[in-house]
Amino acid sequence: MERRTIGAGGLAVGAVGLGCMPMSWAYSGSRQRGDESLRTVHRALDLGSDLLDTADMYGPFTNELLLGRVLKERRRDAFVSTKVGLLVGEQHIVANGRPGYVRRACDASLRRLQTDVIDLYQLHRADPEVPVEETWGAMADLVRAGKVRALGLCAVGARGGRRTGAGLYDATLRQLQRVQQVFPVSAVQAELSVWSPEALRALLPWCEARGVGFLAAMPLGNGFLTGTLTPGEGFEPDDVRARHPRFTAEMMAANQPIVVGLRRIARRHGEEVTPAQVALAWVLAQGRHVIALPGTKRERWAAQNAAAAGLRLTAEDLTEVSRLPAAQGSWD
């Protein structure tokens, strides 16, 4: 698989990584099977999708524990990315950026992941009660202690901005400017897909100008861009899409022209090429530091996603994608 670099340190990873969250959090709990998820991680590593993206809050904790079972055997094959800064309660999620908590959380993640170093440690969300420089400084201390190799930041502020038309990633850009003065940012993780291209306006250019890796979260639009979801079929109550305005039957039907367009492009590249692979290839075409992070718990989809790294879209393809209708429906 094509290799791409993250940050000034030149950390190399496969162009398509593996988002591990669906294996134990947020999507269809009845379909989460540990053995199948383990096979999926192994298959992804075999194919060069070595960036494994998780977080301590996924589960909570169970996602890291699952990956630890793989890393115990194959640590050298993997680039491990996990996150800190969010605590999961009964009915709520709260931020915690206190330096002492960051240090304890890192040690706990290392134990669950069964490793002595985290390749990329990301701040999931900044704590409004703690200056972000203090949180980032504690994370930088972990790098100096040899527990972490590089630091990343997850984007905030996009969804609220969609309602107002304001700069969608203004809050993240301000945070990046502040933490960059404390310790270098190696990667930024934010949503980027054919139906959510907002990061292209300011956030991705910021990363490109500084050699910062861009981790494209939800590159398949929570599964919509795969073309495998049927409008009106419904979702399990614990699935985040069950409460998502873009996944009502009406909005899914209204946005089908996007999938139709992706399928049309796929056919030009061969009978085996899928809309999902076109969607991922489009993400990868947005910049040399972009890494796609499609999430899946199925071995079949992990293999299909990895193969997308070899798909090269033509100028005609990219123009056609740019002319697809904008997604309808609120994101909030």
Description of the structure:
It is a single chain. The chain is α/β, with parallel strands linked by helices and 332 residues long. Helix content is 38%, strand content 16%. It contains 12 helices and 12 strands. The chain has helices spanning 34-46, 62-74, 99-113, 132-144, 158-164, 170-180, 203-210, 249-254, 256-269, 275-284, 299-307, 315-322, and strands spanning 3-6, 11-14, 18-19, 51-53, 79-84, 86-88, 93-95, 118-123, 148-154, 187-191, 213-217, 290-293. The strands form 3 sheets. An 8-stranded parallel sheet has the order 3-4-5-8-9-10-11-12. It has a two-stranded antiparallel sheet with strand order 1-2. Strand 1 and strand 2 (11-14) form a beta hairpin. Helix 1 (34-46) packs across helix 2 and helix 9 crosses helix 10 (275-284). The longest helix has 15 residues, at 99-113. The chain is globular, with a radius of gyration of 19 Å. The two termini are 35 Å apart.
Summed up:
The chain is an alpha/beta fold and 332 residues long. It has helices at residues 34-46, 62-74, 99-113, 132-144, 158-164, 170-180, 203-210, 249-254, 256-269, 275-284, 299-307, 315-322; strands at 3-6, 11-14, 18-19, 51-53, 79-84, 86-88, 93-95, 118-123, 148-154, 187-191, 213-217, 290-293.
